[in-house]
Amino acid sequence: QVQVVESGGGLVQAGGSLRLSCAASGSIFSIGAMGWYRQAPGKQREAVAVINSGGITNYLDSVKGRFTISRDTAKNTVYLHMNSLKPEDTAVYYCRVWTQYNYWGQGTQVTVSS
Is 99 exposed, middle or buried (0-12, 13-18, 19+ CB in 10 A)? Predict the structure, then answer.
């Protein structure tokens, strides 16, 4: 069993910054990719940023240049550094971890006020 726990969400004004953290624990043999997704009210969940085991990253076009994903392999942790936040970034942010299967965290709310 693998547990995935996110932290770091909150309320911030437009133009501000937040850092999300996600730690995976439990019966982990090896972790492949780790990623962040988000879901705004009335919208489908979308991939925001993913980093694979080799450090290769992919970003949603709308966050390129503003968000940075990184990982600490020794700690089974992934981070999402979010700068220049916009109201349209408001959503619940979920962490996803790929091992033999894939696991989701419970989500953390990010609210950007205008």
Answer: middle
Give the SS3 label for residue 66.
coil
Strands 18-26 and 10-13, by their bridges, are unpaired
Is pLDDT at 100 greater than 90 in this prediction? no
Report yes or no: 80 and 49 within 8 Å, Cβ to Cβ: yes
Contacts of 28 (CB under 8 A, 6+ apart): 2, 76, 99
Q: Is 90 exceeded by the pLDDT of residue 1?
A: no
pLDDT band of residue 23 (cuts 50, 70, 90) is: very high
CA–CA dist 89, 93 (Å, integer): 10
Give all strands (DSSP E) within the chain, no chain letters.
2-7, 10-13, 18-26, 34-39, 46-51, 57-59, 67-72, 77-82, 91-98, 102-104, 108-113
By the 10 Å C-beta count (0-12 exposed, 13-18 middle, 19+ buried), 16 is classed as middle
Looking at the chain, how many residues does it have?
Answer: 114
